[in-house]
Design a protein that fits this description.
The chain is mainly beta. The chain is 0% helix and 53% strand. The chain is built from no helices and eleven strands. Strands 2, 4, 5, 6, 9, 10 and 11 form a seven-stranded mixed beta sheet that branches. The model has no long low-confidence stretch (mean pLDDT 96).
Length: 124
């Protein structure tokens, strides 16, 4: 089992930027696909971005394409989400998740391990 800890959330004005980090410990991080999801009471937990084990393939939700970038540093066992041009609609709790098959799926059910979440609030 892998343990995931997110950090970097906070309060930011619309148009601003934040960088989320997710540090992994336990099993071999470099074999995992990783993803970010976000959750609100109204919409539930939704896919944001994913990256495969090598970092060679990424995927994004349409709502964040061109604004968010997912990346990983396998030497540091960390995955990042750079969020630019933030909007109030981006307000949510953001979770990172690990896919043991390494694919970096967009499907929530593919992920076996989850972090505790970090709150991102974007004010207008």
């Amino acid at each position: 089992q892998v343990q995931l800890v997110e950090s970097g959330g906070g309060l930011v004005q619309a148009g601003g930027s934040l960088r989320l980090s997710c540090a992994a410990s336990g099993r071999s991080f470099s074999l995992f696909g990783m993803a970010w999801f976000r959750q609100t009471p109204e919409k539930g937990r939704k896919f944001v971005a994913a990256i495969n084990w090598r970092g060679s393939n990424t995927a994004y939700a349409d709502s964040v394409k061109g604004r968010f970038t997912i990346s990983r540093d396998n030497a540091k066992s960390t995955v990042y989400l750079q969020m630019n041009s933030l909007k109030p609609a981006d307000t949510a709790v953001y979770y990172c998740a690990a896919d043991y098959y390494g694919v970096g799926s967009t499907n929530l059910t593919a992920y076996e391990s989850w972090g505790q979440g970090t709150q991102v609030t974007v004010s207008s």
